[in-house]
Amino acid sequence: EIAMATLPMDFNIYELPGSVYRRAKEIVKKKESPFKEWSAALRATPGILDYSRAAIFALIRSAHPEFYHYPGRLQGYINANLTETDHENPTEEALTAARHTPEKDAVEEANRQLAAARGEYVEGI
C-alpha cells in the first residue's frame, strides 16, 4: 500500500489496476525512494496496521514531496497528521486526500498513463 501511495497517478485505491499493482511490487523489490523511507517511518508508528488504506494514502499523498529526505521531519509529520478515528469508515475528506477515484475506468486510466510514459501527449497528465 505504501508503494502504491507514492505513485503519482490517481486510481481507485480499493480496486487496484493491474499496472499499478505491478509497479508497486517493483518499487518494493528494488526498495526505491520514497517508498523505503515512508515504509521505515510507518513501521515505527504504533498501531499503524489499524489505519485504513485511505488514511495511509491521504497521509503520504498530502505530504511535502521532500519530507522523506528528513526522517525526523517525516516522523513528526506522521505523528501530527495520522488522525483517523473510524478505521472502518474513512471520511470523504480522507478519500479525497488519498486521491481515490472510484468512478475512473481502470483500463482507460492505465492506457493513459502508459501513453504518457511512452512520451505521447495525454491531456491532463
Mean pLDDT: 88
Helicity, as a percent range: 40-55%
Number of helices: 7
User: Which residues form runs of ≥5 with pLDDT under 50?
Assistant: none
Number of strands: 0
Seen as an oligomer or otherwise, the chain set is: single chain
The dominant shape is globular
How would you spell out the order of helices and strands? HHHHHHH
Protein name: Exodeoxyribonuclease
Characterization of the model:
This is Exodeoxyribonuclease. With 125 residues, the protein is mostly helical. It has one domain. The chain has seven helices and no strands. The model has no long low-confidence stretch (mean pLDDT 88).
Describe the secondary structure blueprint for this structure:
Blueprint: H1 2-5, H2 18-30, H3 35-43, H4 53-62, H5 71-81, H6 92-97, H7 106-117
